[in-house]
Amino acid sequence: MLSTVKVTYKDEDYDIPKETPYFLGRSNLLGISDPNVSRKQVCIFWNNESCYIETLGLNPSHFMDQIMEKGKRYIIKNGEYIELLPSKYKFVLKILEQEDSDYFDQTLPLNSEGNEINENELSESSFKLMSESQYSHESHSDGVSSESDFIGNFIDIDSDYEALKVESDLSSFNLTAPKSNNSTLLEGVPKFWKQKSYRNFVKITGKLLEEEYPAAKAVQIRKMIKSRWDELDELEQQSYYPKEERE
């Protein structure tokens, strides 16, 4: 028989299994039909004090009054709830324990000043938005730097920022780490992207970077992006124009 722990939610007592995550709420999408809980709320109980969660579906949902984004990871504490919004999509959630997730590797999240948050600060603020790119692996068997992976993971082609939709189809846009010293550092960029598109791209990515990272780090990353962009431009010219035309 599973060991349980008694919890109180919405003035009702529940016996919750200790060893597994437990969803408590009322939602047709999750197959939960508890009449004592709001239809739009899902309460997650976990045997640890807190855990990481990641939304995998396209469903709209709120956690701590902020919209949960697909592919982003959040810290949730026992007893906190997610509010499901009206949607035709299935609600899909992945739960990760910190010690089992090599993305985090005992690394504390950063605050707005770029300093590590200590355990006391972390307990006071249970909601911290974290992108996978912040916690890229420190070591790579192929020798590619974590900075390269960081930039590749940071660019989100599914972003809702309208300004990213400039003159071209972004669906083929990817920043990837080089496989060799001879390979292009930027792959998948449409060949007809010109200076205006680049300016828009830098403007939006710069805004995103400055929202999440210290100014000095944001400037450093933008310089790396520009360097890769310039290299791609040079490779395109070499590929599409004879040497005499370029000179």
TrEMBL record:
Primary site of residence? nucleus
**Which superkingdom?**
Eukaryota
* Keyword GTP-binding in annotation: no
GO MF, one annotated term: DNA-(apurinic or apyrimidinic site) endonuclease activity
Q: Which GO terms describe its cellular component?
A: nucleus; site of double-strand break
Give GO terms for biological process: double-strand break repair
The UniProt record lists the PNK FHA domain at 14-70
User: InterPro entries, from UniProt?
Assistant: APLF, FHA_2, SMAD_FHA_dom_sf
Keywords for the protein's UniProt record, in alphabetical order: Hydrolase, Nucleus
Q: Which Pfam families match?
A: FHA_2 (PF17913)
| Cellular location(s) | Nucleus
- Keyword Cytoplasm assigned to the entry: answer is no
Q: What is this protein called?
A: PNK FHA domain-containing protein
Taxonomically, what lineage is the organism? Eukaryota, Fungi, Fungi incertae sedis, Cryptomycota, Cryptomycota incertae sedis
